[in-house]
Amino acid sequence: MKRDRVRERYDVVIVGGAAIGSAVAWALMECAGFGGSVAIVERDMGFAQASTALSAASIRTQFSNPVNVKISQYGLEVIRSFPELTAVDGVPGPDLALVEGGYLTLAGTRSQAQVLRENHAAQMACGADVVLMTPEEMAQAFPHLRVDDLLLGAWGHSGEGWFDNVGLMTGLRNRARSRGADLLRDTVTGMERDGGRVTGVRLASGARVGCGWLVNAAGPRAAQVAGMAGLSLPVEPRKRTVFVFDCAASPQGSARVKGGCLPLMIDPSGVYVRPEGRYFLAGATPDPDPAVDPDDFEPRHAEFEEIVWPVLAARSAAFEAIKPVRMWAGHYAWNTLDQNMILGPHPDLPNFLFANGFSGHGLQQAPAVGRGLAEWIAHGEFRALDLSDFGYDRVLENRPNPERAVI
Q1: Cα(first)–Cα(last) distance of the chain, in Å?
Q2: Is Signal given among the entry's keywords (predicted)?
Q3: Of 31, 218, 276, 285, whose CB has the highest number of CB atoms within 10 Å?
Q4: CATH of the domain spanning 9-74+164-234+338-396, picked from 1.10.565.10, 3.30.2130.10, 3.50.50.60, 3.40.50.1700
């Protein structure tokens, strides 16, 4: 990888080069109102421990917050047009191999069904293509499922699925670099302030880099980065183990929709599963769900036999005989206030911009977040989509803006 020359000062310094940081750099370099210099500072150039690379790589419109629905709709536009949007020197960017299999969210209690209906109303108001299904309709569409304990389901007929996560990150970053953004292989170890502004960052290499804007895109390490500027941030790493398994009698191909492709199913218990080539990918929210060290990537092996497998076997006879193939652990950057992103400036440090606390949604939200922060830096406001409800003020006021559809 080419090592970019370190300048003494950049108009924008982005801390973190995974999906969010790369999207901010990409959007800035594409923004007609911005003509400045940009640097991404990334500690792990292999991105082996990046939440982006370790995610389940999915996108959905099944959110409770209408703005989150619209954010994913824009993300899908970018994914579908990705080769053109990220072309470098006339060579198209990567095809993200979108599989538009949809999500299937299941409700087993009256309260869960009511939440599905309320969320569906918000989604429909945004033009999302999500269909509510009775147990009988689900049994018809997905005959491998046991539905006798279900009351309702919500299925993404279009606009939802899974895609190449690393391809998105790499394509955005390569396009940004082709247009002049620098990628610095280094670690931010400190920040310098002058009154109400960040003036620069100190790097592990010993360099000092000045900045006009500082974007915190540090994922699970975001609170550490904010602390360097004397700011607090309610974001912590939460571990999520992903399991890949083989199935003796695979139900893939049995669906009577989408050419037989099964959706990403979310059981009422919170366990999820989706196809992954000839295999399946699954996981669950652990209980308890403590904060972990940002360097702790040891999978929780017991979750498969204690949580995931029993739920899947009860939901489908096809999942009674399955065999784990591999597993890995990644981190959610968990916003403990309301599980929604924290985006935009700190009121006491207006050139310090947050892009943090995505609580598992950062990959799919990256394009819209990048566009929004580029607009803020270039024009002083969000233009294409008003993202102001996600601002830091709600943290100061302890005023949650909750997202109910968190997996």
Answers
A1: 35
A2: no
A3: 218
A4: 3.50.50.60
